[in-house]
Design brief:
The structure holds two protein chains of two kinds. Chain A is an alpha+beta fold. In chain A, 27% of the residues lie in helices and 31% in strands. The two termini of chain A are 32 Å apart. Chain B has one domain: Rossmann fold (3-Layer(aba) Sandwich). Helix content of chain B is 31%, strand content 19%. Chain B has a nine-stranded mixed beta sheet with strand order 2-1-6-5-7-4-8-9-10, with helices on both faces. In chain B, strand 1 and strand 2 form a beta hairpin. In chain B, helix 1 packs parallel to helix 4 and helix 2 crosses helix 9. Classes of the chains: A alpha+beta, B alpha/beta. Strand 6 of chain A pairs antiparallel with strand 3 of chain B.
Chain lengths: 113, 275
């Protein structure tokens, strides 16, 4: 996976945000990572420490909020969580192509001082 | 260097044999792709505003996609391609599923119907480009060095090397990889994911993000299905379970079986783009 490139961009965005706020240090990043984003959270932590080294984010904490893959069933008019990525409604067993959540790869917030 | 796949932090990307940075493109305009749009800053302070001489701890909400820069460039590509009335395909698969052969045979079948151009992505060598060039197809090779996927900026630079006004269809052959390219929109109209019969029926279940994102799934090398003990029904069922909305084709680029339906589909799609 391309976790290093992704973390590099996330840390760049965090530092840019901190600098714009007049802050001198980044203490933590909170990411929202969807189950369908294709990114492995464990590999992100590894990449994060590496990317932060030597920047104002050195030693910062990484918090990852996982977002489960959630589909919409048109028949039941209700959402359901896709177990094992299979988009089958557990109520009516219809297949759904409408993924409502689960692709997120967002920088949610930055803690700074 | 990424420990999982060898994807580099800074890749030595080259386009048509030149360093990527040296390749200008009408798709990127005069300006470089600086990503500062802070006029509408969405930053909110959550603490009190008692700013002393020391900076106080604060949490600032950002809520931005980490891939925002790529997404923005991809939208720009899409607009550019649309203005040129180009049908653009992003072709994805594992290494060795038959992307180049399919593109080569598609080009031959489309000859006299539609004008086709190709952007090929690989970590190294221009072997694929050479194969396509030998078949008379205008082609630009992007060698990504250590990067495991194409991104929208590479495509913008590479597309500038083709005479897009002389094309009807642009096929982007992505780096052979079923993981990373799933996250990178290139500005394509259709995402085409290949599954060869030799790979096994459960590929879609093993790599759900990419198969879920497919607009079209193509089962390739159908001439080898019997020898490979390929369970066709199970494979199609798995494709439907993960990529419910994807249009499925089954073909052999080698024997030509199933190619007519695929080519007819492309002609229709190009007609729809042309309007």
């Amino acid at each position: 996976m391309h976790e290093v490139g992704i973390m590099q961009e996330a840390v760049r965005m965090a530092i840019e945000t901190a600098t714009a706020q007049g802050a001198g240090r980044v203490h933590g990043l909170r990411l929202r990572v969807g189950a369908m984003s294709g990114v492995v959270p464990e590999a992100m932590q590894f990449a994060f420490d590496m990317v932060c080294a030597g920047t104002i984010a050195e030693g910062a904490k990484l918090e990852i909020e996982r977002v489960p893959a959630t589909c919409w069933c048109g028949t039941c008019q209700a959402e359901f969580e896709c177990a094992d990525f299979v988009n089958e409604c557990p109520r009516c067993h219809a297949l759904s192509g409408e993924l409502r959540r689960g692709r997120e790869l967002n920088l949610a917030s930055v803690e700074m001082s | 260097m990424c420990k999982d796949c060898g994807c580099g932090i800074t890749g030595d990307v080259s386009i048509g044999g030149q360093s990527s940075r040296a390749v200008s493109s009408p798709l990127l305009g005069g300006a470089h792709s600086h990503d500062h749009e802070h006029g509408d800053s969405h930053h909110h302070h959550h603490d009190d505003h008692d700013h002393g001489p020391e900076h106080s701890h604060q949490t600032v909400t950002v809520q931005k996609s980490i891939l925002e820069k790529n997404e923005r460039l991809a939208e720009r590509n899409r607009g550019f391609f649309k203005a040129k009335k180009l049908l653009v395909l992003n072709v994805l698969s594992s290494p060795g599923s038959g992307k180049t052969t399919l593109i080569q045979q598609t080009a031959a079948a489309l000859a006299k119907k539609l004008r086709l151009g190709v952007i090929v992505g690989d970590l190294a060598t221009d072997n694929d480009a050479a194969r396509l060039r030998a078949a008379g197809v205008p082609v630009v090779q992007v060698t990504t060095g250590t990067v495991c996927h194409l991104d929208a900026e590479m495509v913008a630079r590479a597309a500038g090397q083709l005479d897009l006004d002389a094309l009807d269809v642009l096929i982007i052959e992505n780096v052979g990889n079923l993981v990373c390219p799933a996250d990178y929109d290139l500005g394509e109209d259709l995402r085409v994911v290949l599954l060869s019969v030799t790979e096994g029926e459960d590929k879609p279940l093993k790599y759900p993000p990419i198969f879920h994102s497919a607009n079209v799934a193509v089962v390739t090398k159908s001439d080898l299905a019997v020898a490979a003990g390929f369970d066709r029904e199970k494979a199609i069922d798995n494709l439907h379970r993960i990529g419910h909305h994807a249009r499925v084709f089954e073909l052999s680029a080698k024997t030509g079986e199933g190619m007519a339906a695929w080519v007819e589909f492309l002609v229709q799609q190009r007609q729809a783009v042309k309007g």
